[in-house]
Amino acid sequence: MPEQTPGQQSPGPQPHHRFARAAGRATRSFLDASRDDAERARTERQEHEDRRAAEQRAAAERQAATPTTLKVARWWWLITTAVFALVATAFLLSGLNAPVGTAGGLDLAAPEATATGQFVLAGLAGVLALATGTGAVQLLRSRRSAVGLLTGVAVIVGIPLIVRGHPLLLALAVVLLAGAALLWFPPLRRFLR
Known about the structure:
Layout: H1 15-64, H2 68-97, H3 102-105, H4 115-140, H5 145-164, H6 167-182, H7 186-191
Helix pairs in contact: 2-4, 2-6, 4-5, 5-6
Keywords: Membrane, Transmembrane, Transmembrane helix
Region (Disordered): 1-63
Transmembrane segments: 75-96, 116-139, 146-163, 169-188
């Protein structure tokens, strides 16, 4: 058998050549997979941007087509919410400054004149502000559920206020019931989803 010099290679495969070929294949595979991943990410990002642009165009078109009755109803209920919040704050401040009556702050002749009565009225007005505020936010989002919520609040609160007969309560009832009627106009109902 001829002797090999250190510079010559044997005709058979040597172990370090197998590792080198495997490392080369792995490197090529990794680079190909990285390139494919980058291309897929670029495509997904482009599709996401196109989808978002289409949604923004659709939202702009919807906003341009918003009926006037919906715009009025939105402002109406936002102002009504603000009025209830102000009334709740006024009752709360009045309750803090009210004199303590007999029987631990409860006067059976005029319970609303005592601190406890003021706090109860502040709580009720606060709940109404919260309910109308929730309905107003739903109305801003063009949700059909806003109509049911705000109409329910208007009827449940407005009818007893009319029966009570006080002029300020009557005005508040008219505001609530007019706002509820505004929600039932056909252009507004068609626009809500």
